[in-house]
Write a structure and sequence with these properties.
Strand content: 25-35%
Structural class: alpha+beta
Radius of gyration: 30 Å
Number of helices: 4
Largest sheet: 6 strands, mixed
């Protein structure tokens, strides 16, 4: 009879351990779900905040200055936003370089760029789609016989590529 009691006590202890394990597992699950929910809310908030910040005059001015510095000629961007995984650049204008009559070399109403995020993050240059709407290019020669796009051709022609760039769809 004494042995039977020990068996019952062992069984009770074993059952208590199992129920505490279930409680602990349930608690961890709740914490993980709350953590995932908070993380998603933070990401969504940052995404919305980024869209608001990108459309401020300060941001578009800064983007225009960076682009002008990179191209070595005046460039402006009217707006930038992100929808889904696609970047939208609105009102891109690249002015004629010095020595050419006024006007613009290039005007694009909207440029869309959809990176292939998984491969881009892995280090490959790949885009799902690149689209250009409302493109206008004005080619001209100056009095010395140089083309207005010669500076861009030299700028991009002298850079050595570090690998291929893949574009699945060009629209």
């Amino acid at each position: 009879m004494h042995v039977a009691r020990r068996t019952k006590n062992v069984a009770r202890i074993h059952m208590t351990d199992q129920s505490e394990g279930k409680k602990s597992h349930g608690r961890m699950r709740k914490i993980a779900l709350w953590g995932a929910g908070v993380t998603l809310l933070v990401i969504a908030g940052l995404y919305l905040l980024l869209n608001v910040v990108l459309n401020t005059p300060q941001a578009t001015g800064r983007i225009s200055r960076i682009l002008s510095d990179a191209l070595h000629q005046p460039a402006t961007v009217e707006g930038v936003n992100i929808a889904g995984g696609t970047f939208f650049i609105h009102g891109l204008t690249i002015a004629n370089p010095p020595g050419f009559s006024g006007g613009n070399l290039l005007v694009a109403r909207t440029i869309t760029v959809t990176p292939a995020w998984s491969t881009l993050l892995a280090g490959r240059k790949e885009f799902t789609a690149i689209g250009i709407r409302g493109l206008k290019i004005s080619l001209a020669k100056n009095s010395a016989g140089a083309w207005n796009f010669s500076g861009l051709k030299e700028l991009f022609g002298k850079k050595k590529s570090t690998g291929e760039t893949f574009i699945k769809r060009l629209v």
